[in-house]
Amino acid sequence: MRNVFTQRTKYPHGTKKSSNQPARAPVALALPSIFAGLAALFVVCPPPADCLEIPLLWTTNVHAYTESGPTVADVDGDGLAETIVASQEEIIVLKGTGEIVWRWRTRGRYMTYPSILQRSGEPTLIFACDMGGMLTCLTGSGEVEWQLDLKAPSCWSAPALGDLDGDGAVEVVQTDEMGAVRSFDAESGDVKWEASIANAPASPALGDVNNDGKLEVALTTTMGTVFLLASQGGILWKREIGGTSETWGTCAPVMFSSSSGAGRIVSASSEGRVFCFDADGTTAWEQPVRGAVAPTISAGDFDLDGRPDIFLITQLGVIHRFDEDGAVLWNIDMQGRSLAAGAIIDLDHDGRLEYALSTQDGHLMVLNSDGRTVFDHQFENRTINVTPAFGDVTKDSPGLEMLITGGESGRVFCFGAKAPVDTLAQWTAYRGNEHKTGAWFGLAGETALRMSPEHLAPDQVLSGESVRFQVVNPAPGDEPIKASATCVRPDGARIEAVTKVLGKHGVLDLPVEVLVTGTYRFAWTLTDGAGRPLFSGNRDVVLDPFQNDRAMGKRALAALRDAAKAAENTLPLSAEALRREADGLEREIGVAVTAQETVPGGGADAGQVALQKTSTLVARAKQGLGLSTAVQRAVDLGPGTSTLVSEGDLWESRAREDELPTLVSNPVQLRRRMVQGEHEPISLDVLNILDRPVQARVVIDTPADGPVVTPYRSMQLLTSVAEPIWDPLLALDESAVVTIPSLKSGELWLDIDGANAAPGEYKVTVKILALNGADVVDGPKNPRTILPPVATVEISLNVLPFEMAPSGVFRLCTWPALDATNVSDLLAHGNNVFIGPNAESQYDAAGTLTGFDYTKLDAFANQFSGHDVVLMLNGIPSFRGQPGSTEFTRDMKAYLDDLVPHMAALGFDTDHFALYPIDEPGGQGWGAVNRVVEFGKAVRAANPKVMVYVDGGGELPMFQAMADYIDIWCPGIGMLADESPEMEIMRTHGKLLWSYDCGYSYARPIGSCLKGVNIVAQYRTSALFAFRHGGTGIGYWCYNSGDDPWGRVQLNYPLVYPGLTRPVVSRRWEAVREGIEDYRILAVLRKRLTETDGTSITPTARSQITHLIEVSLPEMLDQSFGEVKMGLARTSIDATNNDAAMRALRSEMLGCVEALTACAS
Q1: What's the rounded Cα separation, in Å, for the pair 914 and 702?
Q2: CA 343, chain centre distance (Å)
Q3: For residue 449, which of 465, 482, 467, 471 has the smallest C-alpha distance?
Q4: Looking at the chain, which terminus has fewer C-beta neighbours within 10 angstroms, N or C?
Q5: Nearest to 539 by CA among 559, 558, 556, 519
Q6: Full strand arrangement of the beta sheet holding 467-472
Q7: Which helix (H) or strand (E) holds 1051?
Q8: Could you tell me which residues come within 8 angstroms of residue 782 by beta carbon, excluding any fewer than 6 positions away?
Q9: Helix (H) or strand (E) holding 961
Q10: How far is CA 1141 from CA 77, 373, 1101, 1112, in A?
């Protein structure tokens, strides 16, 4: 996850002060007698030893009403921070002594917080927007750099700074009261993009929450809606959290990284509920709080346990603290309303963080990690909307300073803390930092090794679900670390799980069966290879069998019925579907409860039956909660809504019918980048929300000169272990109609072929017409036209001006059984190595070689005329002599003398055909190896330009024996990563290094369950793995040989399924093509790094490409390969190899492409 700016766990301002520096005169300006008592501290914390000494150093009267807190930053480059205040009509900058440096007056009134951009070698920039909508950028000396009139007021929204698109230039994001969200170039003020959302948003939050390498923008509006916008301003999703409020009382969202590194967004409503969302908009958790919530959320790892903590203060004066899973940690009623967040910082430098806040009525408080008050100061004035701000503003105190503004009094207060300026700090100003990003990604950049459980709380453990532990190792070494977790049940039974972690992240699932009431004792540890402990944790959780499961069932039942009631008037057919689902869930609850009641005294079998029934209930309840949310959001789309479309994961083939939309909108807007000539797949999940099956017709509109879009649908079948899987992709028939069951999702797969599309922007529109949708079947029965409800997907496609390397730069072989129906499919998917026959030798009666019959060879070769392919002539030619004999050597020369010109006449020179004498000779033993050696000697003697191919492994002496006679080596793909003598021979002898896979190590069980394999690891990244290790080809056994793959068969090797008139492609087969195309892009990028012909490439582009090839690609591939070599579980493989990882890698790669095209332009 990329931070908005580099996040620091130590406070960044200024140089470190000596902790034993003597204090000097603390008061810069004489104080009026009315404030003489301000330095007195009203301490309410026992015992006194725990209290913090934070003296008041100075106060300054700026003679202006301040309705927001200060910002602290070095704006003049002198190494000390200044205090920047937005008063009613001015921006005011104070020195560290409290003296006013300058003040600048705007045309309107400020009710906001300035954000600061410090630039290396350039003047600092200060940004603020007044109530009249004038957005101003000032230099650190108070000069106007640029101004823009937003034409609409902006009240309580702070400008947020970040490099949204990763191009190295900083943008400023500003909102207004009319719902406009704009991104400006921070240095010039040029508008980058503008978006419009319904109602006025509070301050935006910026951060890369979805790991796409760019920053998203989160917003909460006055009408209780949370939006997430992409880096270019498109709406990714929106969620309703309820309530209405003025802008000042609207809770601005906060982004943070979880212990697993996943991005999350938290916000709260005026109705007293806090919501936490995953990056895709899924509700991670929600909790009630006591009172409405204004912009008072802050985030950090308060107790330094590797798990984030979420703080908020309600308008009733209650401090709430939650862990990342929503468990309540604090509920402290301090009797003081606040409209600004508390700070999280170590104020006494004891290695533990404190929480500092200031209430509306002038109450400054600091709480320690136990929630006890350790500092309490009452001002004689209000402190309006103030988050304490921290920095190194003066040398007159030995440590860090804390700044507070005093509302109507016009005063600014400076306190001195014991902590040095590099103290641990996580939230140090309003919206977290001087850039006002409203984001804390400290754990994403944390350097500490940690292991933490998810959802391990009394109300969150569910039947059928393991307790998952996330392991984060920011600096992995060459050796893996061991992660183990145990649970000791109340009856003394012990459950343990163990795994290895190779890279920066890993997971461990601990199955837990709750059948006895009592305390379950959990413990987890990380150890090194020698067994030395690196990290440990423990937690006791009191659990009651099936209590959480029943609660979830009841919650889902209520949600379904509530959603049905809410949809009754607008979407009556959806309401009926939800009622039917609720009835089914109620029956499921009854079945589970009946089984649960047999557990006491029923023995082990009764317990297992109850767990199985309850696990089924939990899965259905979760689905019910998701369906109820989806339908409630569909109500906003209006009457007639019949289907909901959302983007799906490309490479996940499991449980596709249960996919639910994270964003409910119509139209759905998607944006894609691709290079010339490649394919870009898109998966669309279409959810039927009616009470009957929907017949959906797919209509696609593409520009005449644009890419070609072919729609497919995925189909369910069974793997060898009877797991339902959605692997086949069937081209739609002439009707383009698919049938989707009620409350289920059907997947549409779009193949966008850019072969003939010139560079530029294209718009593709996909319409899904519900032919028997709402109001069509149910409308009036007299003859009339009733148009079907339509769900629309708008795809903005940018074809980049970049040519991939030619297809021949990389080779693919799948050993296909060829026929007229599949050659075009093979070529279209990058298969450019084909296995065919030798010519047949002809002898006369005396045994003399008279010629060769090319009939079969020509028929085979002519299928590929005009294509850049390599033909592999399989087997030892039918000579009378055996390899090694004089006759064989003589006949081989005659054969090659005739074969080479014959093949050339067909269009295949010696670089485009090879001899393939024996398959996997090393596996057959020395007899086969010796035959290959003698075969190779004969070829070398006859024509050394003709290539000889060998695949498979073997003993080192076998490779040594064959070394001088092999041109194409094709070991098992796993061998490519080896630094072995065998691989050294293959790398230094011969012309080409390919690889192949027939072992399929990523499958579980290994080798046979390929329909349900992790597609990213097994197929999507194979070509990238070859690129990483110097290979120029891959192979798979096989394309279409073996048992009928449509059924449940033990060996699932075929990559396609037999069809009536043509092959039916699979998700796996599409993944192979995508990987090859990425190889061809990477080949060009790597070549550009090494070119010495003077071709220009900017330092930025060079840095980006180098990082991609030398950091990102190895990090992903090496961890994945290490995991499979150790035989880790599917859960570990899935955590490393998934759609999110591929999206991030491909986004980085296309970012490199754009950097290169920018060089060219």
Answers
A1: 43
A2: 29
A3: 471
A4: C
A5: 519
A6: 450-453, 467-472, 505-510
A7: none
A8: none
A9: helix 956-962
A10: 40, 44, 22, 10
Structure confidence at residue 12 (pLDDT): 29
Q: How far apart are CA 415 and CA 38, in angstroms?
A: 11
> What pLDDT sits at residue 187?
94
**Distance between CA atoms of 255 and 276, rounded to whole angstroms?**
10
Structure tokens at 1081: 């892009």
Would you state the pLDDT for residue 10? 29
DSSP 779-807: S-SSS---PPPEEEEEEEEEEEEEEPPPG
Q: What mean pLDDT is reported for the chain?
A: 91
Q: Do residues 514 and 579 make contact, with C-beta atoms less than 8 angstroms apart?
A: no
Neighbouring-strand partners of residue 740: 694
**What would you report as the CA-atom Rg of the chain, rounded to the nearest whole angstrom?**
34
Spatial contact of 430 and 405, defined as CB atoms under 8 Å apart? no
User: How far is it, in rounded angstroms, from Cα 267 to Cα 330?
Assistant: 17
Structure tokens at 396: 């007159």
pLDDT for 48 beyond 60? no
d(CA 767, CA 761): 20
90-94 and 56-61 strand pairing: unpaired
Contacts of 972 (CB under 8 A, 6+ apart): 952, 953, 995, 996, 997, 998, 999
Apex 762 CA angle, 760 and 766, nearest 5: 160
The conformational region for residue 788 under phi > 0 = left, psi -120 to 50 = alpha, else beta, is beta
CA dist 524 and 505 (Å) reads 16
- Pair of tokens at residue 911: 């670089």
Alpha-carbon span 365 to 1139, nearest angstrom:
46
- Residues 988-1021 pLDDT 10s: 999 999 999 998 999 988 777 899 999 999 999 9
540, 520 contact by CB (below 8 A)? yes
Binned at pLDDT 50, 70 and 90, residue 1095 comes out as: low
Alpha-carbon distance 715 to 539, whole Å? 44
DSSP state of 502: -
Residue 898 in 3-state DSSP? Answer: helix
Is the separation of the CB atoms in 641 and 206 below 8 Å? no
Show the beta-strand stretches assigned E in 907-1021.
913-916, 947-951, 968-970, 992-993
Tokens at 508, concatenated? 């461990």
Residue 903 DSSP SS3: helix
In the block, residue with structure tokens 């009707």 = 735
DSSP 997: B
- 136: nearest Cα among 101, 164, 105, 100: 105
Question: Which pLDDT score is estimated for 37?
Answer: 32
Alpha carbon distances (Å) from 494 to 428, 488, 510, 522, 1004: 44, 4, 11, 10, 26
Residue 912: pLDDT above 60?
yes
Contact 253, 267 (CB under 8 A): yes
C-alpha–C-alpha distance, residues 122 and 114, integer Å:
19
Give phi and psi for 481, each to the nearest 5. Answer: -105, 160
Amino acid identity for residue 758 in this structure: A
Mean pLDDT of 104-130: 89
| CA 846 vs CA 393, 842, 843, 885, 963: distances in Å | 105, 11, 8, 18, 37
Q: Which two tokens stand for residue 44?
A: 């309410």
Helix (H, G, I), strand (E, B) or coil at 1074: helix
Instruction: Compute the distance between CA of residue 829 and CA of residue 852 in angstroms, rounded to an integer.
Output: 34
DSSP sequence for 555-595: HHHHHHHHHHHHHTTT-HHHHHHHHHHHHHHHHHHHHHHHH
**Residue 689 near residue 574 (C-beta atoms within 8 A):** yes
Which residues are paired to 538 by β-bridges?
A: 523
Ranked by mean pLDDT, the top range of 8-17, 332-341, 493-502 is 493-502
